[in-house]
Design goal:
Pfam families: CSD (PF00313), Ribosomal_S30AE (PF02482). With 183 residues, the protein is α+β, with helices and mostly antiparallel strands. The protein has two domains: 5-105, Ribosome hibernation promotion factor-like (Double Stranded RNA Binding Domain); 118-181, Nucleic acid-binding proteins (OB fold (Dihydrolipoamide Acetyltransferase, E2P)). It is 21% helix and 35% strand. A hairpin with a 2-residue loop joins strand 3 and strand 4. Helix 1 runs parallel beside helix 2. 22% of the residues are buried.
């Protein structure tokens, strides 16, 4: 996922499984609309009611060109929202509908922003193959294919070369969608 994602748990303990589900849903919505500038998801367990369990609230905020989308089930008293995953599903479904409306209002024309380029360094190539790996400045290892190297420069790259990279989420984890030789 290339857009900044912030996850907030209110009045409940953070859950790695819930975080994974949120990341998955945010990645899906980003594939639908890659112009999203920021995504903030809040999951909240407000309070117990006498006749029912915790009713979870989910809120999805998307910053988009020329607007902001806020979707959630803040006031809903739906018993299905006793399950936080159902509350999350409903909030993302509402955000997707609003995002579709936003695109229609813009006439389907949305300026796409280039993803931020992250500094990195080539760490290794796989012998006889058209791919390798690089390390981002934060230490994360990222796969890259020769087709991602800008200007057909794959053959000129060497281990240790500094690069600038656009990273996207691939089927097997993060991968470089564009590799620019630094300097």
């Amino acid at each position: 996922m290339t857009i900044p994602l912030q996850i907030t748990f209110k009045d409940m303990d953070p859950s790695p499984a819930m975080e994974a589900r949120i990341r998955d849903k945010a990645a899906r919505i980003e594939r639908f609309a890659d112009f999203i500038l920021r995504c903030h998801v809040t999951i909240e367990a407000p309070h117990r009611h006498h006749h029912q369990g915790n009713l979870y609230r989910a809120r999805v905020e998307l910053d988009v060109p020329r607007g902001r989308i806020v979707a959630g089930n803040g006031g809903a008293q739906d018993h299905a929202h006793e399950d936080p995953y159902v509350a999350l599903r409903d909030a993302f479904a509402a955000a997707t509908r609003q995002l579709e409306d936003h695109v229609r209002k813009l006439g389907g024309v949305v300026k796409h922003h280039e993803p931020a380029l992250i500094p990195g360094r080539i760490t290794r190539f796989v012998a006889g193959q058209d791919y390798g790996f690089l390390a981002l400045d934060g230490g994360q290892e990222v796969y890259f294919h020769r087709n991602a190297v800008v200007g057909n420069g794959f053959a000129q790259l060497k281990v240790g070369d500094h690069v600038r990279v656009a990273v996207t989420e691939g089927e097997n984890g993060p991968q470089a969608s564009a590799v620019h030789r630094a300097g």
